[in-house]
Specification:
Strand order of the largest sheet of chain A: 3-1-4
Radius of gyration of chain B: 38 Å
Organism (chain A): Bombella favorum
Helix content of chain A: 25-40%
CATH class of one domain in chain B: Mainly Beta
Strand content of chain A: 15-25%
Oligomer: heterodimer
Largest sheet of chain B: 3 strands, antiparallel
Order of helices and strands of chain A: EEEEHEEHH
Strand order of the largest sheet of chain B: 1-2-3
Number of strands of chain A: 6
Structural class of chain A: alpha+beta
Distance between the termini of chain B: 73 Å
Protein name (chain A): Phage tail protein
CATH topology of one domain in chain B: Immunoglobulin-like
Chain lengths: 144, 208
Amino acid sequence: MSNKYYAIVKAGSDLTKPCLVVGWVAQPILQDGTSTPYQAAPGFEEVPLEISDEDWAERMASPQNPTQLNQGKLEPYVAPVPSLKEQATNALQQARLDVYNNYGILGEPTPAAWVTYLRALMTISNGTDTTSTSLPEEPSGSET
Amino acid sequence: MAFLQQTDPVAGQPVTVTLPYLDQNGTLQMGQIKVAPGKDAVLPDNILTSDEIQNYVLGNLGSGDTDQKAVGVHWNGYADTPMMVVGSLPDQKYSSLLGTNQNGLYLTNFGNIIPEMPAQSRMMLQTFTATGVQDGNTITFPQAFTSDDVKVFITPKTPSATGSWSPPICGCNNINRYGFGLTRFFTDGTPKTSVGDISILAIGKIGA
């Protein structure tokens, strides 16, 4: 191995759980076999990787997709499940777009089922509804 | 009266030296002896000979058969650049030299200014892609820079999936030496959680 490789995570990360990798560092190994330990920038922490030169080169040449470090292994990042409020906000944005594209752009009135759906999403999104535990069901395209 | 004289030295020839001595009567006499020539002197490599200096002054130093000697360098006040004159009349040529003008700007042969990048350490440019990413994702540089002063340029590769084919507007926040936070949203209302591909160009410092 010609380098010592590190994944960079946020300082204080719990390495027993999946951690988002925020950077990559290759530290050269000297002729005597030693390598100057890498010191991560403030707010970050370096985690040595057991990875070959070939695997590292392939990783550097590949798309830099979000990656997580899980028990010393690198794997695609799995984002935490968003809160119901965040889900409602995103669904509301999509629902508004769908309603406009399917009805508003044609000058047609918004079907009642969609109005009900939009209002339900709005109450979750703006924090008025704090009791719902799941999103309302989206109306099918033919519902009016 | 000179008590010690010698003939002019000639390479490889003995030198005749005239020395005073006292004879058996105590009278001062002058005698001559021949001194064998010494070893050939070896000049150090870094010594210029008079021939080399003369060639240098004439502009012939290191000049090949097809080369023309430079006869002078002067300041071209019109172009505001240093200029070298080569050849001889009536076949004189001019060659502007890369130099600085009065404002300290570097100039090319055509008088154009060369951009100056103040860099106390080496710069590195990285180009790479990220696929299937969305607003809020952390995008890592393939190789960390050594300073948080990194310039990032993003080009979206995947247009909106809604059918409008509007490309997302991409930006970044929280840039540091390791990567950045991606901001990515659509002007056609497509949710910013919609994923797509981006190309990134990052310029930053490496080394101490």
